[in-house]
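Hey, resending since the last one bounced:
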Amino acid sequence: MSDPKSVDTAFVEETAEEPRMPGHETALDRKPEWQPRYPGSGRLAGKVAIVTGGDSGIGRATAVLFAREGARVAIAYLEEHDDARITREACEKEGAEVLLSAGDLGDPKHCDGLVRAVIDKWGRLDVLVNNAGEQHPDEDVGDITVEQLQRTFQTNIFSQFYMVQAARPHLKKGAAIVNCTSVTMYKGSAILLDYSATKGAITAFTRSLSENLVKDGIRVNAVAPGPIWTPLNPFGGQPPEKMDDFGENTPMGRPGEPNEVAPAFLFLACEDSSYMSGQVLHPNGGVIVNG
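The structure tokens again:
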């Protein structure tokens, strides 16, 4: 008989809590602001980028901004095909070639297939943005099931390992990896225990991977957003009663928009940040953190 407190498989399917997650941006009454705010200047001209979680929210804003800056963009997403089509069309309007890839990045085979498709299509990979993630609020640590715990780590941090492992043979000098961590890694979150733990792991992974790859001219950095208005929180990432004042506890008194975060990813992906590696940027509405 298996141990009821262990998970017997290396890959855990979506849990019962997840059918609404990460959520469809098309279903939000108040749409996030993802459109780039300024003209492009060719900062990613000729580059090929993968953006995970690229169908909506921060991922969409980043993918479209990369497209505006001249990149060809592969958009990896779970299953929100309507959102992904909107992102693809927005990137194409910027003149970019686009590849869509649906599937679960917690499966290393899917990550291998995604990178292989990018190399088959464009022959190179210059930027990897590890942005995909999930979260499940729980008031009591005892309410976090084994399946949820492994699933959250699988999506948030295991997927980043899998994507880097798949991408590494194709990353040359000058390439950049940008991971998405969170303000919760620095200030904690009483109801997002497993999620915050994964974000701590992502920050440590970013710093360690930077040490591992910097000698080969590959830079690794991260972005730690605060509360950002994306589908993730209203579709189950926060308790419904907390959504009325979501983000109002920041010094700026409001949640951020995806297009206020995407420029941080662009900065770390392009040569503007050529002397930065192992660092974290903090678009978080003014929350002061160490790190």
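The longest helix spans residues 146-167.

Sorry for the duplicate.
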